[in-house]
């Protein structure tokens, strides 16, 4: 992590403490900070309504939800929907795909920005560096609908440029989007295309916070560029890698809906259907509210457990972790 | 000189990476401007072949994409303002250490980052609030990003406390301090965060897919999705066969229209974005 930019100064903390003199009633503070509390209303109503009231809606995972009866009026059915889920092969397939695609992401897409940042860091010609960076960041700002549209067009067996290139080498056109073998590859490569460049920003910042003296010393000791990267740069950005790893692990149960949904088609359902698309289909399209909520709840709980666990591990390894 | 030559492969490799990144965009742009014949025979790579704006004309005559574009402009403009108001006010307040109950509020935000609400409970809530088929269904469920909130909060915490102190002694209320002192000092972060929000709104997709079914209200992303999925001739009313356009060309043009505004502003905004990310890497 780069050095903290803005740390509240010590005296400020003391001063604010002395403002909160003991023996004052709640009303005093409410009045004194009335504008501040007023300021909080929009955001806190949002969090209350959309993050906490919706928790109440999770109850329908344990009920047979009927729209007319509402959340509370619908009858309890205990773990029925979870039983249905765990005994359906569709659910296991969806879960497997979710984990597999995430695993590929972790193995192939997670290291990509680290490598890219290490390379970019070696560039000495500034205008060149900036130009390359600007191009690499670009796809991050484009929605998956657009990116997916471009990907499908590029990979089209009849008019796509990729297959045209393959033809030049005498290779038969490949049906990338409808092949269960190629689809995961398209998924991973598109993930890297969209976010690897953007991901370098944070690593570049971490690298620039490393003491240049270390490199000087290493050079004097005759360390090659590779050795410097291995012994100085990588250890220097360990903390950053750790934090981003925790965040990535937290998403293990959640493959971006928009990315998958826009690339998906009937031919590759068996490898591309994931929890988020499953929830959309069963819940919103087939109105099986309770079942879809059960999946969502399962996903959220596993995700929470994963973040907490990995954060703990990262901390044990001597890095800061997320909190 | 020797040293320079040694790093040549590195420069070439990164230039190649950059090229591969933008190539798909250039290819689709070229396709959108090429004739059907050139597209079918696979001649289009980087430059348009047999240049024509027929595809764009067709889209403009049809007009559906333009309505969607207008919706997206409204969604983005109003949405960004709403999100910025809610986020900035809350971030400013949470940056004040003297505030009673600060931890509770901060915890609420933290918790929302860790435990995601499922789609169905959210859908039922939006339905109950009668927001289905209104833009509010896009604005409200994403009103505040916890991440952006924390970024702003840590920025405000870094502003010199002395300024506020002296203003308070002169009799300024929190309201005056906020408007007259904090906001003018916070232009960089305000720019960065509002850009993040605006880009996200421009790209709004899933919330619109979940909550909006009226064709007239769809944003450009969902409209584009429909165009990409359906055989194109059924999309355009009164298709004249002599004017028939290769669907690939039409789809390419629709993609370009959707993404063009972002491409146009990107060069100017890019430095603000980076600032935003770097501030974000400071722990909340």
Automatic annotation (TrEMBL), chain B:
Q: What is its main location?
A: membrane
What residue stretches are annotated with the ABC transmembrane type-1 domain?
69-269
Q: Which UniProt keywords apply?
A: Cell membrane, Membrane, Transmembrane, Transmembrane helix, Transport
Q: Where is the protein situated, by its record's location annotation? A: Cell membrane
Q: Which CDD domains match?
A: TM_PBP2
GO aspect biological process, one term = transmembrane transport
Residues that span the membrane, as ranges: 65-92, 104-125, 131-150, 189-212, 250-269
Q: Name one GO cellular component term.
A: plasma membrane
Membrane topology per the entry is:
Multi-pass membrane protein
Q: Which family does it belong to?
A: Belongs to the binding-protein-dependent transport system permease family.
Can you name this protein? ABC transporter permease
Q: What is the lineage of its organism?
A: Bacteria, Bacillati, Bacillota, Bacilli, Bacillales
